[in-house]
Each structure stands twice: as C-alpha cells, then as structure tokens.
Amino acid sequence: MSAEAVVTAQQLTKIYAGHGKRGDAVVAAHEISFTLYAGEILGLIGESGSGKTTIGRLLTGIEKPTTGSLQWSSAFASGHGQVQMVFQDPYAALNPFNPIRYTLTRPLINFRHLSPAEALDQARTLLTTVQLTPPDQFLVKRPHQLSGGQRQRIVIARALAASPQVIVADEPVSMLDVSIRAEVLQLLRKLMVTGQVASILYITHDLMSARSLAQRVIVLYRGRMVEVAKTGDLLANPRHPYTQMLFASIPNPRRAFRGEALPIPVSGSLAPSSATGCPFAPRCPWVEEACQQTAPRLEPLPDGRLVSCHVVTRTATDGQDASKVAQPRTTTP
Ligand SMILES: Nc1ncnc2c1ncn2[C@@H]1O[C@H](COP(=O)(O)OP(=O)(O)OP(=O)(O)O)[C@@H](O)[C@H]1O
Ligand SMILES: [Mg+2]
Fold it and tell me: 110-164, pLDDT tens digit by residue?
C-alpha cells in the first residue's frame, strides 16, 4: 500500500495482572504490530476475549501497553483528541441526564476552547454531519428520547467534536437494530471519504460487516495476530486454520473454499499444550510436532498477506496449499 502511515503499533503487549488468590495473569495482547494508513478502514476480528477492545484502548492511549509503543507520523501527530473511541453500547456511553446540546458543546468548549456560541454552531454542524437533522430538534433531546441508531450517531458526533485523526469503532453496530446497522456503517465510511478522519480501526466479531467496510483485516486469536490480509484475499482464500474456522461458522453456501472445510472446534481446554507452543494448537486440525514446541511468527506469503502458522509457512514455501497437505487430525483431543 502506497498510502501514508498514520500510526504504527510496534509490538504492543498488554498483560493484566491476575486478581485474587489464584488469578492468572492474562496476556490480552501479545506483540501486536500494524500500521494504520490514511484513507483506510482496518478491520480487527476475533472471538470474544481475543483482545480486540484491549488493542483499541491501547491505540487511544486510555490503556498503556506493558511493552511496545505507538509511533505517530508527524503529519497526524497533532489533533485535539487524536483517537476517539465509539463503543458498542451508545446508551451506556451517554449521560442520561444531559441534553444532546450539552453532550456536544462541552468537549468543544473544554478541549477546543470555543466560545459557547461557536460551540453551539459547531454542534449543529456535527449533527448535520451524522445526519441528525434538523439539528435544533436533536439539541434539546436526552438520550432516552432517541432510538439506538440516533444515539450511536450522537456518540459519533461527540467523537468528531474532538477532531480526531483516528476513530476506533468497537462493535459500533452490534447492539443496534439489524435494519439500521448498514446506515451507521455507511456513515462511518462517509467520515473517511469526506476526510473528517484519516483512518478508522473497525472492531468486530462479524466477518460480514468487516467485508463491507474494511479494506484490510487483522485476525486475532487469544491476543495474537494470526492473519493479516486484504479483505478480498481473506474472503477468497482464508489461510490460517483459525481464519478458516471463523469462515466455516458463517452460513453462506455461495462462499467457495479452496481447501477443505475444517471441523468446528471441539470444546475443552483452550490452554496451549505447552507454554511455548502455538496457542492455536489445541484447536487446530493440522497440528504437528513443531506446533507443540514453538509459537509460529507472522510470516509473509507471496500475495503479501501475513500468516502465523507453521504448516501454512512450510507448505507455502513448497508452493502447496496447507489445507490440502496437512493431515487432518482424526482423533478428538
Ligand atoms: N481491565 C482488565 N483487567 C483484567 N483483564 C482484562 C481487562 N480487560 C480485558 N481483560 C482480559 O483481556 C482479554 C481480552 O479482553 P478484550 O476485552 O480485549 O477482548 P475482546 O476481543 O474485546 O472481547 P469481546 O468480543 O468480548 O468484546 C480477556 O481475557 C479479558 O478478560
Ligand atoms: Mg471487546
């Protein structure tokens, strides 16, 4: 990609200390490295607990990494609130007692130091940007007087009030009515296209919404990046066994696979069989000796994607397709 880098995450690791007597430490994010480019919507996909929100929070700076750092490109390093986050639940994100006028003007007055009159004017502009018109009708409302979709538009408007370079949208439509999800995603896309924000990190567990929105996708598994690819490449040919599993769980008969469909994961312990092995080994149908011994690193494939899998790397070097070569595990672990 020739686009300009906005921010680069370098080896971000976040470890939460265990709580209580037998609380184990949680590695919520492990050596996460990626660049967010200008004009890009980057998807971050993974199951619950895979570290999506943690990475989003690390990007905003709300959360400090245990190790690793963020590098902002100088052109994007200024900005009032460089990164703003839009959360899943717009109702929880808004103070129920405050009218929208207060919600939107307060950050403009406090952080951008506008006069109350300028702030009110700007609040009207923001409401128009998020397609809540006529704006004066919405300024006087409180959250409970709005629909879920309207509330999420207010949350987006408030995020924009900080003139961010980047928006981290963390499952922004999963609590909204199915019928209005597409509109809110369309609004996010529009913010990018019109240059209101430089880039968006779009967090979701729903592969199909990432397909419509993101140009590139990072697939996470238990705090690690397992595959990074252009969305089209990923959909056409998922390479990491976990990505294949994610895809196999989506009922879409039109989707064609190059390889064999993988079995749906069995329940049981998800702990790696050894502390040093591949974290996905306990669920992996292709698991082999090497996977128990060392954790794979992200390696580039000829098409430019990155995959963290011993079997994929080995077979790609041989010019083979892992799913055709690997011996599917026949015994249930
Ligand atoms: N503040 C915290 N203290 C301790 N552990 C935490 C904290 N925040 C997250 N975790 C743990 O870190 C891991 C990753 O959590 P995270 O919320 O980032 O996952 P997620 O992918 O966003 O999940 P979901 O899809 O459910 O939102 C989980 O095991 C979670 O329990
Ligand atoms: Mg989350």
Answer: 988 999 999 999 999 999 999 999 999 999 999 999 999 999 999 999 999 999 9
Ligand 1 within 6 A of CB of 39: no
Confidence (pLDDT) at 333: 42
The answer to whether the peptide bond before residue 134 is cis (omega within 30 degrees of 0) is yes
Ligand nearest to the CA of 87: 2
Tell me if 175 sits within 8 A of 90, measured CB to CB: yes
pLDDT tens per residue, range 1-51: 468 999 999 999 999 987 766 678 899 999 999 999 999 999 999 999 999
Residue nearest to atom 6 of ligand 1 (CA): 16
Protein residue whose Cα sits closest to atom 29 of ligand 1: 49
Label residue 316 by pLDDT band (50, 70, 90): confident
Distance from CA of residue 212 to its chain's centroid? 14
Domains, the chain: 5-217 (3.40.50.300), 262-325 (no CATH)
pTM of the model: 0.89
Q: How many CB atoms lie within 10 A of CB 97?
A: 8
